[in-house]
Design goal:
- The chain is of the alpha/beta class.
- Among the domains are: 30-103, Arc Repressor Mutant, subunit A, CATH 1.10.10.10; 172-305 and 316-355, Rossmann fold.
- It contains 17 helices and 11 strands.
- Strands 4, 5, 6, 7, 8, 9, 10 and 11 form an 8-stranded mixed sheet that branches.
- A hairpin with a 2-residue loop joins strand 2 and strand 3 (91-94).
- It is globular and about 70 Å long.
- The protein starts with a helix and ends with a strand.
- Pfam families: Dimerisation, Methyltransf_2.
- Residues 27-99 form the O-methyltransferase dimerisation domain.
- This is Methyltransferase.
């Protein structure tokens, strides 16, 4: 290398990285801070206190028993995140996005935010590198029990989790009933169906169907209220049990949303085998999960790969490709017959599998 070439190489090495690249790294690094801003806003009831009209930061602080200057700083951070709008210096109003942090509004995501900013879950992420090295579930090592066992021992936390899952499933509950032909079936059993939000959406759109929500006792705790509110108590029953031991008979469609990704392969095969044993000839299993492409597409990936890591550190499950779903179903005596993207509920797909005869 000549002297001039050496100088040019040194200059290139010293050149700053593109601003967009630097900004992207900083944005990712600040992600945890943004999440804690949401958590603080919920705990202080900021969105509820502002309500439908604009309000001065000092008034919000007084209502929240907080200090005016720090409250102004919080409200401005929320504005930068698109949750509020500062219409005049120190005067704020709630945006349509921020309104989702008001538990009294339809479609709110307050339980979801509380659960996914819960220190219990976030502590596992602090050991992500350990889980990557060993494959072990960080949550189990930290808490001395598995995630669902911990929920069982903490009823208040379990109720929050049920609420979070109910909020998370609402969008899918509005899309799925129109994306799959449910007219082929008479009874749908939502396995691990929690508070019944998803099955309520299906039954509401298909009046000829009856339903069953099958989950643990603690998983079903909020389901009676959901069914009553939707006028479905007479068309849907609740059955408590353990899908690793057995699945009740009586349904010709078994529906599972965000269940398979909670578990490692062998346990998933056990669940699916129990479904197959309970289904009649011609029965189907409908798995609603993200379906990963064979190669990551950054344009469409969304948060699915972060969800995959969350499964790793907190419960030991994983997100999967179509080929991996097909393999699990084959091992359980099922054959995947279709994989349907749920437009309007990305990244979820409906993976339908038939009982092998």
């Amino acid at each position: 290398m000549t002297h001039n070439e050496d100088q040019a190489a040194g200059a290139a090495a010293a050149a700053p990285a593109p601003a967009a690249d630097i900004g992207r790294i900083v944005q990712i690094a600040f992600g945890g801070m943004a999440a804690q801003t949401l958590r603080a806003a919920l705990r202080l009831r900021v969105v509820e206190l502002i309500g439908d009209k604009e309000k001065d930061a000092a008034d919000v602080a007084a209502l929240a028993s907080a200090q005016p200057q720090p409250m102004t700083r919080l409200l401005r951070a929320m504005t930068a995140l698109g949750l509020l709008e500062e219409r005049a210096p120190g005067t704020f109003a709630v945006t349509s996005t921020g309104a989702l942090l008001d538990p009294g509004r339809p479609g709110a995501l307050t339980s979801f935010v509380r659960m996914f900013t819960e220190p219990m879950m976030l502590r596992s992420w602090e050991r992500l590198d350990d889980s990557v090295r060993t494959g072990d579930i960080a949550f189990d090592k930290i808490h001395g029990t598995d995630f669902f066992g911990h929920l069982k021992d903490n009823p208040e936390l379990s109720a929050a989790f049920n609420g979070a899952m109910g909020e998370a499933v609402r969008q899918t509950a509005s899309v799925l009933p129109h994306a799959v032909d449910f007219s082929r079936f008479s009874t749908v059993m939502d396995i691990g169906g929690g508070d019944g939000t998803l099955l309520s959406g299906v039954l509401g759109a298909h009046p000829a169907l009856t339903g069953v929500v099958y989950d643990t006792e603690e998983g079903l705790a909020q389901a009676p209220g959901t069914l009553r509110r939707n006028g479905l108590a007479d068309r849907c029953s609740l059955v408590a049990g353990d899908f690793f031991r057995s699945v009740p008979e009586g349904a010709d469609l078994h529906l599972m949303k965000s269940i398979v990704h909670d578990w490692p392969d062998e346990r998933v095969v056990t669940i699916l085998r129990n479904c197959r044993a309970a289904l009649p000839s011609g029965g189907r299993v409908l798995i609603v999960e993200p379906v990963l492409p064979e190669v990551v597409d950054p344009e469409t990936a969304g948060l699915t790969y972060l969800s995959d890591l969350n499964m790793l550190v907190n419960v030991g499950g994983r997100e999967r490709t179509r080929a991996e779903f097909e393999d699990l179903c084959h091992r359980a005596g099922l054959t995947v017959t279709s994989v349907t993207p749920l437009a309007g509920a990305r990244p979820f797909h409906a993976v339908e599998a038939a009982v092998d005869e």
